[in-house]
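Let us practice reading a record.
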Amino acid sequence: MATEPKLLSTKQIAEHNNAKDLWIVVDGQVWDLTEFAPEHPGGIGIILQYAGRDASQPYNEIHAPSLLNETLTSSKLVGTLDTSTISDDWAKPPPQQNPKAQLKNEKPPLFTLLSTHDFEAVAEKTLAPKTWAFYSSAATDLVTHKANQSFFDRIWFRPRVLRNIKTRNTRAKIMGQEVELPIMCSPAAMAKLVHPDGEKAIARGCQNKGIIQCVSTNASFPISDIAASLSPTTQNAPPPLFFQLYVSKKRPDSEALLHQVWALGIRTIFLTVDSPIAGKREADERVRMDDDQQGIPMMTGAGKPVNDKRGGGLGRITGSFVDESLDWSDLPWLRRCWKGKVVLKGIMCAEDARRAAEEGVDGIVLSNHGGRNLDTSPPAILILLDLQRNAPSVFDKLEVYLDGGIRRGTDILKAICLGATAVSLGRPFLYSLNYGPEGVEYLVD
């Protein structure tokens, strides 16, 4: 027979008010967050503000009511608040909280957001400084990062009128898998920095909207956990997941990872070829990681994020395991240990697109890594034009995807009109994750 939770006074709760002994109250329940607080994706700071206090208001503004019960074991529920002991002084907001700043930086209701730009603006104001620096940063002078978006504005439609458009269909096929829209979610590292469910929340949101997520080698969760978070597919269909591969200097590690991916029913991998060395992302380097952000778990055996003498660049530090020697001659090795489809992610010129077709890969992604590696690499849409002029035959031999600078439906349409099979979006999905899986679905809508 279950015992009744212990009734705790505000005086008892207030004694547990530091990082080594940390209790908070949420909706009348008293939780011991001493072990969890350092792992909190939003940082330990906000939890410390409410140590020994009632954190119901800030908690419920961001999290679902059931999250604590789902995340923590029952042993962390130490009791319930004795409401008869609440005093005016205990009920006051923490003294270090600035009410006006809090109001300015809180997330607006999801339904008020109208575009990817709105998601980005909210993310800039509400994500932890290091999280924002990591995701928004790009290489050196940001020339390529800016051009990825601005070059779409240099391409104009030639509208034809008086066409019957009563019946419309946005469905497409990507690597043989049916999707509701010709878009997919780009791989991105450590999505748990944005939301506790990280890539699992993105996966659920994408599945609910009939599109595919490509999971990063540097995801916050094991690929098996992400796959398990999805609803079962019908008729032995593969899950709505692709897998992005960084080849490790320890090849057996990559082989073992690919075997795991195959066992989950995933049949397409995206081999990243544009990042043998991480770019110089100065905004990411300048913002050093807080104590609670170091040691963030990742799927692979990559070095855990820590500050060093050069700064706190997450992309640089966590990419140290990537094999810098990878070249075209390694594709036969990949084919030996992977029997599914192979897409090369990071093609930036017509010559390499032709070479990819000659090597027999199934697809290519025209991408400069979101402008995050080699600055002044060509914008993605310009690479697509390069292929149309200088390597048009590749469109008949493999599927061509575009990744970089997509922010509007018109951008997607321009890429499709110019020969792309589909497009991939990265940062917009990460910013939408700020609202959980509902935000992901809202972004697609």
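A brief commentary: The radius of gyration is 24 Å.
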